[in-house]
Amino acid sequence: MTHDAYAIDEVNRLRVMAAGVWGARVVERVLPAPLDAVWTVMGDLEGEFGRFQPDMRSVRVLRVTGDRVEALARSKYGFRAHFRGVLRPGWCWLQSRFLIIGMAAAPDPAGGTRVALTGGLRIPSRAALVPFGASAELTRAMTRLQARTDHRTRQDRPPAP
Predict the structure, then answer these.
(1) Within a domain: residue 55?
(2) Cβ neighbours around 74 below 10 Å, total
(3) Contact at 8 Å (CB) between 78 and 58?
(4) How many domains does the chain have?
């Protein structure tokens, strides 16, 4: 058996990470678009991210070193968060003192892209998330992500003859 037989994709990795956080919820969906098109939306922290995450107003990336990222975010409620984490194709895990955001995408064997989202309010003294409304918020984010991906995919298509 080769080493690759033990490899897991980014969506399964997100499930593993979320399983280690008490109260974490994961919402998954298969989007009918290729991974590159989906990640163009998901990985654009300063642009598209705020359009599909319902509670985010803006994100400003402060520093990128390899796949390490540091960013400041402002919610639509005026709250601010200083995030540190990892951002690479198909994977994003960001933590601030009080928030966790996790996003993953991987090709689906049947076509399209499997996407998973998790996140919520973090309890700093232990590995836990406060799950108030988390599933509904994540589901709304997933629906908006699909709409943003569909919109971007239509824009990238050449005009019909």
Answers:
(1) yes
(2) 15
(3) no
(4) 1
Read off the amino acid at residue 67: D
Q: How far apart are CA 58 and CA 61, in angstroms?
A: 10
pTM equals 0.80
CA pair distance 78, 15, nearest whole angstrom: 30
Per residue in 62-102, pLDDT (tens digit) is 999 999 999 999 988 888 999 999 999 999 999 998 888 89
Element (H, E) at 72: strand 68-75
Instruction: Please report whether residue 3 resides in a domain.
Output: no
Q: Does residue 5 belong to any structural domain of this protein?
A: no
Q: Tokens representing 156?
A: 């990238």
Query: Helical H runs in 20-83?
Result: 35-42, 49-52
CATH code at position 66: 3.30.530.20
Query: Looking at the domain assignment, is residue 7 inside a domain?
Result: no
